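Design request, tokens follow.
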């Protein structure tokens, strides 16, 4: 791939290790001993160094350590990875640098190392404030361990914290879901950002196998729907702005890394299974750990140059995930044709159905999903696939 000469870039580092696999998880992750983790970090550093030249000239505006459980690594390893990034990439001094952290794998020493590394945003995987529900999910922590992690993070100076929560869990009730939200909101200070997802049953997970065997009872769709509605009511009443289908933030605290993804900004993924988008080319690293450890610079696969049609489709269904919507003017600038020329019939239909709406007038107008459109987002998105 030729060198890039202008613009911005986001980096994603996949850490595939965890203490144990959660029952609902379909991510590329598993437990591993220290020697495997150390070998992986060595390979990850080699990939970071080896890929730097192809994106020379791009300014890195965000870095995201995801997993798996990145907080399982020793703090010094995160420090090493950030030093490798700084040596090889043009890192914006104001870059958002996030690490996903699970309670039970965090201590003050790690938090202090992260601060020295420049980490300025934590994403803590809570999922539920009830120990019984956490046990059902196969999580390794308790509510009290989450509280300890949260309070220690504040004591170390972290002031940009996301909390992950999950609804529609087996055995969960509307009341326990409401209480989980309220407990998180009662934290002093409350988190800047809350990601509230509904449980999705994925093939290949232990939950899926239990469900197939008739040993797992899922919530009815109506109960899931009530929790979804209650989430928005409670969080918006507390001052959080819903800026994406499942994400809420206090004003100005949206996740910049994810916003870049939904805006189709260039991003480069490192580690096994990590996906990338560069110059409208999508590709992904392979999932073989052994192959990656042997040659981290020879693991890319599924490289696909997006056609103009595919770029338009992504512009629409990624951009419409954000509640602010998409800019028709920006569409015109990107593709040389108006939004109405390409999608006029689809837009007209969804405007009439109350699923889309225009906000503002003139060049600043935005096309966005209505509240009902957000509820039926997958149905709307599918209509923007071009024949």
């Amino acid at each position: 791939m030729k060198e890039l000469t202008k613009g911005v870039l986001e980096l994603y580092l996949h850490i595939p290790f965890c203490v144990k696999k959660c029952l609902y998880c379909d991510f590329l992750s598993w437990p591993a001993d220290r020697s495997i983790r150390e070998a992986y970090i060595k390979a990850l550093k080699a990939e970071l160094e080896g890929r730097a030249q192809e994106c020379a000239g791009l300014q890195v505006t965000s870095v995201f350590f995801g997993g798996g459980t990145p907080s399982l690594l020793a703090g010094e390893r995160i420090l090493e990875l950030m030093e490798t990034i700084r040596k090889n990439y043009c890192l914006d001094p104001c870059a958002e640098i996030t690490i996903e952290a699970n309670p039970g794998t965090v201590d003050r020493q790690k938090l202090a190392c992260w601060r020295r590394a420049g980490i300025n945003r934590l994403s803590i995987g809570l999922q539920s404030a009830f120990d019984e529900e956490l046990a059902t999910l196969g999580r390794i922590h308790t509510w009290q361990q989450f509280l300890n992690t949260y309070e220690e993070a504040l004591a170390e100076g972290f002031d940009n914290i996301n909390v992950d929560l999950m609804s529609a869990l087996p055995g969960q009730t509307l009341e326990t879901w409401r209480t989980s939200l309220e407990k998180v909101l009662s934290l002093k200070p409350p988190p800047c950002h809350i990601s509230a997802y509904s449980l999705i049953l994925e093939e290949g997970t232990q939950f899926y196998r239990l469900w197939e065997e008739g040993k797992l009872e899922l919530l009815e769709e109506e109960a899931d729907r009530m929790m979804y509605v209650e989430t928005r009511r409670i969080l918006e009443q507390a001052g959080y702005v819903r800026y994406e289908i499942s994400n809420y933030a206090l004003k100005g605290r949206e996740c910049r890394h994810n916003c870049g993804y939904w805006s189709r900004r260039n991003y480069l993924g490192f580690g096994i299974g990590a996906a990338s988008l560069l110059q409208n080319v999508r590709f992904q690293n392979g999932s073989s750990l052994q192959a990656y450890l042997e040659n981290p610079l020879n693991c890319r696969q599924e490289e696909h140059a997006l056609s103009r049609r595919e770029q338009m489709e992504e512009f629409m269904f990624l951009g419409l995930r954000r509640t602010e919507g998409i800019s028709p003017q920006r569409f015109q600038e990107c593709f040389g044709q108006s939004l109405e020329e390409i999608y006029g019939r689809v837009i007209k239909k969804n405007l009439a159905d109350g699923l889309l709406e225009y906000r503002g007038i003139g060049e600043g107008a935005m096309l966005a999903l209505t509240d009902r459109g957000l509820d039926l987002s997958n149905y709307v998105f599918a209509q923007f696939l071009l024949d």
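Comment from the thread starter after seeing the answer: thanks! Residues 42 and 293 are 8 Å apart (CA to CA).
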